[in-house]
């Protein structure tokens, strides 16, 4: 068992990009996660560059989650996620090499 903090839709207005704001937000989230005993920051991204630069790593894993879209529940989904899922370890636990059940929504 481990705890995760999901990062969803990190967006910086175009006029404020390239100033380190997104990296600062990720640094603050990492510090908060460490202070609160969270094991991993967790996100889904198509473009990995910003996150890799900030200590996230791309993983492939089998996930189970509650599939919700536009306030409608489509039930429990199990799928292998590749090329999108990123984590940053903020605690002492290691990401498991086995299927993970999120026990809720896929951020």
Automatic annotation (TrEMBL):
InterPro entries: Acyl_CoA_acyltransferase, GNAT_dom
Gene3D superfamilies to which the protein is assigned, alphabetical: 3.40.630.30
A single MF term (Gene Ontology): acyltransferase activity, transferring groups other than amino-acyl groups
UniProt entry keywords in alphabetical sequence: Transferase
The UniProt record lists the keyword Ribosomal protein: no
Residues annotated as domain N-acetyltransferase: 1-75
Protein name: Acetyltransferase (GNAT) family protein
Organism, as annotated: Gimesia algae
Lineage: Bacteria, Pseudomonadati, Planctomycetota, Planctomycetia, Planctomycetales
């Amino acid at each position: 068992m481990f705890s995760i903090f999901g990062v969803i839709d990190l967006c910086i207005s175009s006029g404020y990009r390239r100033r380190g704001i997104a990296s600062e937000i990720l640094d603050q989230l990492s510090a908060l996660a460490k202070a609160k005993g969270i094991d991993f920051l967790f996100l889904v991204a198509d473009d990995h560059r910003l996150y890799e630069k900030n200590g996230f790593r791309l993983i492939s894993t089998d996930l189970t989650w509650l599939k919700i879209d536009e306030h409608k529940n489509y039930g429990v989904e199990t799928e292998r996620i590749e090329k999108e899922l990123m984590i940053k370890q903020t605690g002492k636990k290691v990401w498991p090499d086995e299927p993970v059940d999120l026990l809720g929504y896929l951020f």
